[in-house]
Write a structure and sequence with these properties.
The complex is a heterodimer of chains A (about 325) and B (about 230).
Chain A: H1 2-15, H2 35-69, H3 81-94, H4 101-122, H5 128-152, H6 155-166, H7 178-193, H8 195-201, H9 205-210, H10 215-237, H11 243-255, H12 263-282, H13 292-313
Chain B: E1 2-7, E2 15-19, E3 25-29, H1 35-43, E4 51-53, E5 56-57, H2 63-69, E6 70-73, H3 86-93, H4 101-107, H5 123-137, E7 141-145, H6 153-164, E8 170-174, H7 178-184, E9 187-192, E10 195-200, H8 202-205, H9 208-215, E11 219-222, E12 225-228
Parallel strand pairs in B: 3-8, 3-9, 6-7, 7-8
Antiparallel strand pairs in B: 1-2, 1-4, 4-5, 9-10, 11-12
Helix pairs in contact in B: 3-5
Classes of the chains: A mainly alpha (about 325), B alpha/beta (about 230).
Chain lengths: ~325, ~230
Amino acid sequence: MKYLFIILSIALLLTAPFFGQIKINLFNIGDMASMDYKLFWDLRLPRVIVAFFTGALLGLSGLIFQSLFRNPMSTPFTLGVASGATLGSAFAIVFGLVTLVPVFGFFGALLTIAILFSITSKLKGYDTSSLLLVGIALSFFYSAALMILFYLSQESQSYEIVRFTMGSLDVVGIRHAVPVIIVSVLLLFMSLRYKNEIKLLLTSYDNAFLKGVEVRKINTILLVSVSIAVGVAVSITGPIGFVGLIVPHILKAIYKKSADKLLLVTFFYSGIFLVGCDLIARNLGTSSDVPIGVITSFLGAPFFIYLIIRREKI
Amino acid sequence: MLKINHFSNAILSDINFHLKENENLILLGSNGAGKSTLAKVACGIIYSDKVELFGEKLEHLCAKRRAELINYVPPKLEIFDDYLSLREYLELSRLYSSLSVDEVISILNLDALADKPCKTLSNGEQQLTMLASSILHGAKLTIFDEPTANLDPKKTLQVYEMLKSDVIKNRVIITHDLNLAHKLGYKILSMQEGKIEFFDENKKFFEVSNLEKLFGSSIKHVDGYFAVNL
């Protein structure tokens, strides 16, 4: 059963670039002069790669956040990093710096991380819940700032901002996929590197402390890694909701294993989930692609509720 | 071995005592007297710069060294994770003990429970799990917070035997059980409203005049055992 899913997933991954509104002629993708070549190598393939690694990164981030914050409602966006990136991007859009949108997005995310950790490092009784509360407060602050930008912006700019917040996997050229690949692989590496510490943190913070884990240091390392990775992803694709919240839960319900054993599994299947959602978004037959966030939520939410009901019955 | 120099906070006031090398301790006191708080200060869960362990300042120790010197066993097993099995929990706990996880499991007769998630264990089983964990941790000094609460007589005896044995190096035991305190015979520290009210040899504590002073008529002494005078 397990292997069947892996094989199906890899098959999905390999065939995904060939499906879309425009049919690709398989025999032409080696011919550099053809439309098919451009379509395949510059649009479809980068898009599938970005979808996979963005999904993987968001799912893994969600799993780590839910474990560290002990809060099943945590998502990679809970600390306000995504709001910071959105605000940065909106700023770039409103002030006519359209080519710099990802750069501003990333600085918005970085600034948020800096504010977050400089505030909490001053708090005497440091715990993850105060970090969470500061993050939520920051998100609200950013929403207000975003409203001001909306107020200042022209109609077309407003539309662009709204479109950004829906999330989009439209990328042109493989080079846009590179940052997402790098940060998601780095995040996976970090989480596996600190696997044993995560395992101890999953018992209780006091127990981890007594067993010689530097709780505060490990927490900070993991949270900063997640935040940077999320910042990079959001500045390229916009905040794609639900992947980071729901996929870790679905996998936990299916595998019935501790989070530390699901790091790689979550990484892989979250990526597959987003590739699948994107495949649907591209092939619904509408004149333009349906926003990816719509598909992830439409698919994820009912399945999630189904799992909760089923779990209650058992 | 353990030295606390004039520590005070919201619960404790002016805690000052010195436990010498290889001296074990019983920590007594009514509910809310501050026993667990004192234990958390001693092991660093509550930060303080007033604690010395084996001649080293607690706040200067690196996390690994601290774990080698001191461990605290809380009254209840707290585990966030739903699926962590008893065996996995014990594997995580094994730090400085020469015993293996399987050896400790069989010493405490936990074989049948080894693959069950910790969360599904009963209170008594969790109590034994924590004892097993502390043996595997193998710290030089272990503080047990009410290790015999929630246990049936058979398991109480089992825990008593373990607490006495040399699988645990040095120990501080928090308890309400005067018989346990009496039989173990360790030095006694008794607390009242955040203060130390008695810190001396076991024998002196169990002198009739002292017991009357501390407990009034609520304790009855019959044939070398102490019972609540109902």
